[in-house]
Amino acid sequence: MTLERARGALLGTFVGDALGMPYEGCRAGTAPRPLEMVEARLGRGTYTDDSQMMIALAESLLACGRVEPEHLASAFLDAYDPQRGYGSGTVEVLSRWRAGEPVDAAAERLFGASGGSFGNGAAMRIAPVAVMFASDTERLLHEARASARLTHTHPVGIEAAVAQAAAVGAALTGGDPLAAPTEALRGGEVEERLAEAAKHVEDRISPIETAKLLGNSSAGHESVPAAIYSAAAHSGFEEPVTFAIACGGDTDTIGAMAGAIAGARHGLGAIPTRWLEALEEGDRGRSYVDDLAQRLWECGS
Ligand code: R7I
Ligand code: MG
Ligand code: MG
Question: Is 147 a pocket residue for ligand 1 (Cβ < 6 Å)?
Answer without folding.
Answer: no
